[in-house]
């Protein structure tokens, strides 16, 4: 390669490098490193609040309204004693008879196990009426950085439209998708789906 | 400059046209009439600019792949050991994949690329990129394994199993990297010596599967492509572009060009004790736009040979109905040649190479050849535009009695007024290329070709011979851009 060409392509390369650093640098990066105690872009980010549900969800302690749930911190410890189910389930409205009367729509809800994965934890709660999956509530989910914030919501939509775990992965978010699927399977087994 | 073959020194072999109008000496001796060659430094500068654009483009593509990682915030994500491994895995995968795509492009034998940098430089670039590309992909694999280990509390081996078999398209990606390792292992110099060309080539074909198997995990798991439509579509474009080039230039065009012209073996006759001249027949061959100094890759379509393809240099100016090649028969590969029956269909890939008049900048030309390396030079001597005395030809061969094409070249030289020197005998010692005299190679070359400093020099022969000849030319201060070598780069 001729020297003048080397200089030209070198300069083009250098300016591309410079501009991509400017584009790539996280906004407010300087402040964040000073004050970053809880959330830094590198560490898996915990999205604490349920995003797509109007059902009240427990935060740290068990606060069941009509649904029995487990605390996210202790997913294995059931509050009520129903030993057979892997996750707890209650029936609403709850007649004493476990077999519901035919015309009465039975709504079941359950919270699955917290599934640990590469970037943290996924735990889901589901509500189903007569075998139809009505809602998926995110109890807790961690994602890898800000641009993945939308991934759990997208996964909820995909799971609802596929009515189960047979949905496609969100591309670029394979680990989260797989953990979500596992967490969903755990929750679904609680409502017998 | 117009080629006007001068007959001032009437050659002994020249015979007046017979009454029927046919010419008694072989048609391969006829030069193309009114052939025009452009010489001068301008086209050289143009060619260099194009070459720099190719290499500069390759550099920028590689850089862009790394910049994707920076644009995606990669450097700022490194906050822990685990995230450091993860970011390393991303960066190495991006740059490694870019190098792989460039490697594939350089081996696609695309005509537009071949005309700019030539086949041997393309193969050279392909080889040079091989190791860095593989090391980067191997580092990508190792780093993503280490990231998994750091993120989880499982043992390293358990993580390896779940990474390679469990997640997404990773099973395919694992097969891909194993295939890639096999390709690299069989291509390093040590194992290349132990393997036959066919064995090596068979394993090398696995690299296409390797790339194909790796594609799903790139697009399903490539986190640097998330939310970056420009990056996403650049990669799609890159894969499609390279794929289309390979398919076009290695499969579609050779088949279409050869079958539509009905290329078949016309005859195969001995040119010396260990070389043969192959004549192919067909129609409309001039439209292939083949020039002297170029070569084709030939594949004979018969039951035993269709898998093998070998590069053959044009031995004569192509006519519209025929192509001539002369090849040495050496051990493996080409020993079948004498037994290929006439009429066998042939698939041609090519023409390839810039060992042609395209790289000529001077009126004077010096051709230096050894052994069967004389073949493309014989074609050049026949086909280059020249006036008597413009072309000097030096032919080295160990054996005075058994030199391929010797009589043929003598005839061409006499007809066209070339200066021809045949120097038989073995080499004096390592590092020299001329025969024993009291003088150095430089002095001898100057005596044989006094105009060498103002000439384009075309060299073809064994690698050690070409290196020694180039050394001599450098000592004589022949400008580097006037020296053209043709290496059979396979």
Oligomer: heterodimer
Low-confidence stretches of chain B: 1-25
As residue ranges, the low-confidence spans of chain A are 29-43, 49-96
Strand composition percent of chain B: 5-15%
For the largest beta sheet of chain B, what order do the strands appear in spatially? Answer: 9-8-7-10-11
Cα-to-Cα separation, first versus last residue of chain A = 66 Å
Describe the fold and architecture.
The complex is a heterodimer of chains A (193) and B (490). With 193 residues, chain A is α+β, with helices and mostly antiparallel strands. Helices cover 30% and strands 19% of the residues of chain A. Chain A is built from 4 helices and 6 strands, in the order ααββββββαα. In chain A, strands 1, 2, 3, 4, 5 and 6 form a 6-stranded antiparallel beta sheet that branches. In chain A, a hairpin with a 2-residue loop joins β4 (115-117) and β5. The model of chain A is unreliable at 29-43 and 49-96 (pLDDT under 50). Chain B is an alpha/beta fold and 490 residues long. Chain B is built from 15 helices and 11 strands. Chain B has helices spanning 42-71, 74-77, 81-106, 111-117, 119-151, 156-165, 170-187, 189-194, 197-221, 229-261, 331-334, 374-383, 406-416, 441-448, 463-475, and strands at residues 264-272, 275-281, 295-301, 310-313, 322-328, 345-352, 364-370, 391-397, 419-424, 455-460, 483-486. In chain B, the strands form 3 sheets. Chain B has a 5-stranded parallel beta sheet, with helices on both faces. In chain B, strands 1-2-5 form a 3-stranded antiparallel beta sheet, with no helix packed on it. Chain B has a 3-stranded antiparallel beta sheet with strand order 4-3-6. In chain B, α3 packs parallel to α10 (229-261) and α7 (170-187) packs antiparallel against α9. The model of chain B is unreliable at 1-25 (pLDDT under 50). Classes of the chains: A alpha+beta (193), B alpha/beta (490). The A-B interface holds A 1-2, 5, 8-9, 12-13, 16-17, 20-21, 23-26, 29, 40-43, 118-119, 144-145, 147-148, 169, 171-175, 178 and B 48-49, 51-52, 55-56, 59-60, 63-64, 67, 70-80, 83, 147-148, 151-152, 166-168, 219-227.
